[in-house]
Design a protein that fits this description.
It contains 5 helices and 4 strands, in the order H-H-E-H-E-H-E-E-H. It is an alpha+beta fold. Strand 3 and strand 4 form a beta hairpin. The chain is globular and about 35 Å long.
Length: 103
Amino acid sequence: MGDLAEQHAALESEGIGLAAISVDSPEDSAALATRLGVEFPLLSDPDARVIESYGVKMEGESLAVPATFVVRPDRTIAWEYVGDTVPDRPPVEVVREEARRSR
């Protein structure tokens, strides 16, 4: 989430919105957002239903593998990146280009 969070203002100025989903409670998600200085919605999925529906729930865990989705205005997924390890995330420029392409 770090690189995207750092680029949030620049992405937003291009009309690219961000949101993140955490399996933490709403209170813990809010505390995490404050601690990290996240200025976009950090949504709570304590029952892991959302991550399961997106197919990114870790096998045997209630956690998600790192994943990034570009969602079109009609709420369909235009592009996705599912990482293998916690630090495995796409470069911000790739996300930016995929978001531009999905418009």
